[in-house]
Write a structure and sequence with these properties.
The complex is a heterotrimer of chains A (265), B (266) and C (296). Chain A contains eleven helices and no strands. Chain C has 296 residues and is an alpha/beta fold. Chain C contains ten helices and 14 strands. Chain C has a six-stranded mixed beta sheet with strand order 6-7-8-3-9-10, sandwiched between helices. Chain C has two domains: 216 residues, Rossmann fold, CATH 3.40.50.300; 57 residues. In chain C, helix 4 runs antiparallel to helix 5. Classes of the chains: A mainly alpha (265), B mainly alpha (266), C alpha/beta (296). Chains A and B meet through helix 1, helix 2, helix 3, helix 4 and helix 5 of A and helix 1, helix 2, helix 4 and helix 8 of B.
Amino acid sequence: MNLFRKELKSGIKPFLFWTLGLFVLIFAGIVKSSAAMADGQFMTQLISKFPRIVIATMGMANVDIAQFGGFYAVLMQYVFVLTAIYAAHLGSGAVSRESVDKTYEFLFTKPRSRAFILSRKLLAALTFLTAYVCLNFVFSLLAVRQLALTEDYTALFARFSLTLWLIGLVFLSLAALFAARFRVAEHGARAGNLAVLGTYALAVVYDLLEKPGILRLFTPFRYFLNAEVIGGSISAFYALVCVALCVVFLLDAFRCFERRDLGAL
Amino acid sequence: MNVYRFEIKRTWAGVAIWTLVICGLLVGLIVGALPAFLESRAAVEDMLAQFPPAFAAAFGMQMDNLFSFGGFYAFGFLYYALFGAIMASGIGLNLFSREKREKCMDFLLTKPRTRSGLFFEKLLAAVTLLLLSNAAFIATSLALYQAYAPAPLLPERALLSASSLLWTELLFLAIGAFVGVFARRVRSVSGASTAIGFAGFLLSALHSLLEEEKLRYITPFQYFHAAKAFSEGGFEANYALTGAVITLVLMIGAYIRYTRADIPAL
Amino acid sequence: MAYAIETKKLTKYYGKARGIVDVDLAVEEGEIFGFIGPNGAGKSTTIRTLLGLIRKSGGSATIFGMDCEKDKVKILSEVGYLPGEVFYYDNMRAIDLLRYSASFYKKDCNKRIAELADALSLDLNKKIEDMSLGNKKKVGIVQGLLHSPKLIILDEPTSGLDPLMQRTFFDLIQRENERGATVLFSSHILGEVQRICDRVAIIKEGRIVDLRSIDDLRKNSYKKVSFTSEKPVANFSLAGASQLLQDGLVTSFLYRGDINALLQTLSGLPLVNADISEPELEEIFLHYYEDQEAAK
């Protein structure tokens, strides 16, 4: 559909920009990992002596940085945040781009239902997110080749990329929902960004509590714990939660979008 | 000064909220965790004893710096700086692209005021807001310092360290202003400022992770290093200078563009 | 004669694309000056250069004898500008915006704001973003006039106003003019220009193609003539008549020349009805161009 193609074309520039950031993060991180890992043994022991709150703020909870797996997990923490912001940007853009650009009169008086239009835009957003996650996988593989490590980390990278994608889905759909619900597009965007910030803070809080329990449900950044993913498993339950949240958020977004007045800011 | 008053009226609420968040976080961290952190020193020293003496000695010298108010203060700094960077770049973007976004450039620029004057009134409003926000932050920091730091107290160092947030925020204000003036469209101030703030955050995190000293030249959160301010009584000249130069260059660039650009019809 | 606006060879290039080239304008103090031309001709560019919104590439522009670039601030305190498209800050009531606008001028404008709002039936306590287009334009009008400027510059001001509002608006402008204000009025809606302007300049593709008084323009142009006769008139001819159309009993043409010759010819015919009228400025305008093209 030409709508889908147009959305892809207009999203290419931001996509390249975000990909550049991803590239820098992964390559710099992995290629230099040897330095970090060398001290890793010592760091891990040292950090283990710190009170939980310090460990949590450093993002090093529950992870052994001396191992490449552990190091990669810490690096991934930051990629998760980067991706969450990009996903939120994609989601809210899909819903409110025309409102912000004031081109909604052009698009929404064409003989297509709002649901049709929104679905094509979200599909394009989803395409970008998927491509982004695939690049994460590819960059990681390429970067690790510079290190001449003995083990094969392909499976680890695949698992992390999958969790990255699932979490990205949640933020994308949540941001889309906010954008559909708020009358003023800027407020919707702000809500989406605050959601990312807020859940990140919650993730830190999660790390520092002994028995975090139900808190895990509120922060997508901890749906897939580092220990589990490094160990080789992805929580099926939380994968389902991600998909379920995504579906619920999107359904509500469609519903709100159908009914709202266009022509606000 | 009507533009000054106008901009402050429109922006102060958001700044107040961010300030509360930052100070709240500060209080939470210090009150909640500093005592426990200082207590863990003993455990760390025990652990060090198991390592070869040369190694232990090298690290041991940093123990005092690490297990001090200053060392701990710096841990949280990454997060204060994150929020501060988002807030400050948001102010810059907001104030300097306001008329462009709300399509009323004609309104403001056909008033009997030089563009230069308009720019400086906006800048003054932005700086006022940052000063007020940081006054709260510095006051809170100093109060906590008095209450929680072990003697001997060096309030000048605490003051300098707390001020590092202000200098960092000024840098991000300049970034926001620069982007706001030069960008053809600013679709979402919140989106752009979050991205800018997180970019700074990620660069800093990367630097901590990789421990590569040269990286510090592109790590804006650490140009004005809070911990070093405490331990050594001053910011490191070359990094602080880098930060100051970047701030000035961006601000001057924004000024030139703002005063010279053609404003075509909508 | 003191000139309110004077430009000499004013030129603006956007990169390589021409904006305006060698524009010479002289607007006398106290007159209402029309500035017409097709879309993209350079009307907005000229105005925006006068106001300091864009930088000229060459030539000179002065308002009240002061250079537009050097004395911009002094000039702007006496200029009111009404742009074609009206946007204002979000989340502001009309009265808040108007007071903010007034705060830039060293005068007390409260009375003027109330007077103008009253004349235009504008509710000052509504939020601008919640207003209809017409009401937003009213805010724009008040905003441009509240400091009683000596020069009023209007850039396609009546787009979006209903006919009654247009009439009210022009009455307002004329009252300002009677008070001594000079008006520069750019439009491509010729009916408006015809109604209130003293002189008019025509701009096309960046250059002024003519500058004359309205009456003058009409004098050198056509009259529309059409008559209905009792019997079809064969072989109708008259020196100075052109574009002759005959449809049954109705004959119509355009006439340029001595009015007496026309009336004598017509009086010789068995007429049921005759209609001699001034063409709309629009028709003059278009024909004017055709003449130019033909003359080339």
